[in-house]
Specification:
The chain has nine helices and 13 strands. By secondary structure, it is α/β, with parallel strands linked by helices. The protein folds into two domains: about 1-105 and about 275-290, Nucleotidyltransferase, domain 5, CATH 3.30.420.40; about 110-270, Nucleotidyltransferase, domain 5, CATH 3.30.420.40. The strands form three sheets. A five-stranded mixed β-sheet has the order 3-2-1-4-8, sandwiched between helices. The chain has a five-stranded mixed β-sheet with strand order 11-10-9-12-13, sandwiched between helices. Strands 5-6-7 form a three-stranded antiparallel β-sheet, with no helix packed on it. This is Transcriptional regulator. InterPro entries: ATPase_NBD (IPR043129), ROK (IPR000600), ROK_cs (IPR049874). It holds the Pfam family ROK.
């Protein structure tokens, strides 16, 4: 049996796979609750993994996690989890052996989406509480010089835009993410609404909700259009909670399709995530199997 884990800021998903399958046999999840400390989290993670194994032999394991991850499976930094210079692979290996692989969650998701499509050049973007991106270029995950490629949430989209959680002004995340939209509406109306409620008001064209959501989606769409043209990718895959909203998604997709640079023969496909139950768990499992000679 193989185990694959996806660690998010809110919840952690653990999936058991038969050795010749990419469809999970069983999936369990638990609240990540990073404020309880890493050792407490590791205890709950190992207990969940052992419950799924139920005495069966583990072949390989894989972990996708928020944050920058180096080649040795160390989490260099993860603001969502409060981790810095954490030897995650070493810690998990104490309980499940050395045949395991750790990767950034967006990178892993991008690899899964590229693998199922047979795509060599693909960008995966997740839009939820924050915004992140993973890249597959020429068939390989692109991590960058500092393992931080794809950290688009903290790129400057508007020089005099709203203040971001990182302290800078005008970050993409402060304008287009779920938390960014909620903060903007609160600053304009005094209301602390969930994104679902903001979207409902925007669909009815109530102001300032319509303007805030439309603007946020267009700012992100403009950024992604530039990514598409700069890297000459063939598929842009969208995932995350905000993409499930038809209004937000339609503004974004229509902008990209209308505005990318149309050179002869160039066609960009904008698609929704296809990989279940979670592209991060499948992508990092594929990478781990490739490293340790498993069936993919």
């Amino acid at each position: 049996m193989d185990l694959s884990v996806d660690i998010g800021g809110t919840k952690t998903l653990v999936a058991a796979f038969d050795e010749d399958s990419l469809v999970p046999r069983e999936v369990l999840q638990f609240p990540t609750e990073p404020h309880r400390g890493f050792e407490d989290f590791l205890r709950r993670l190992t207990e969940t993994g052992k419950k799924l194994l139920s005495g069966e032999q583990l072949r390989i394991w894989a972990i996708s996690t928020a944050g920058a991850v180096d080649d040795d499976g160390n989490v260099l930094w993860s603001p969502n989890l409060g981790w810095k210079n954490l030897a995650l692979k070493q810690a998990f290996s104490r309980f499940f052996g050395d045949k395991g692989f750790v990767e950034n969650d967006c990178n892993a998701a991008a690899y899964a989406e590229a693998w199922v499509r047979g795509s060599k050049n693909l960008a995966y973007v997740t839009v939820s509480t924050g915004i992140g991106m993973g890249l597959v270029l020429e068939g390989k995950v692109y991590r960058g010089s500092h393992y931080a490629a794809g950290e688009i949430g903290h790129t400057i989209a508007e020089e005099e835009g709203p203040v971001c959680s990182c302290g800078r002004k005008g970050c993409l995340q402060a304008i287009s993410s779920g938390r960014g939209l909620e903060n903007l509406i609160q600053s304009l109306t005094g209301e602390r609404l969930r994104c679902e409620d903001i979207f409902e008001k925007a669909k009815m064209r109530f102001e300032p909700y319509f303007q805030v959501v439309s603007h946020g989606a267009k700012v992100l769409a403009r950024f992604l259009t530039n990514i598409v043209d700069t890297l000459d990718i063939e598929v842009l895959v969208l995932g995350g909670g905000l993409i499930k909203d038809e209004f937000y998604r339609s503004v974004l997709v229509e902008y990209v399709q209308r505005n990318y640079y149309m050179t002869p023969g160039k066609k960009i496909s904008v698609e929704l995530s296809q990989v279940q139950p979670n592209p991060g768990t499948v992508g990092v499992l594929l990478l781990s199997r490739q490293r340790f000679g498993g069936i993919v």
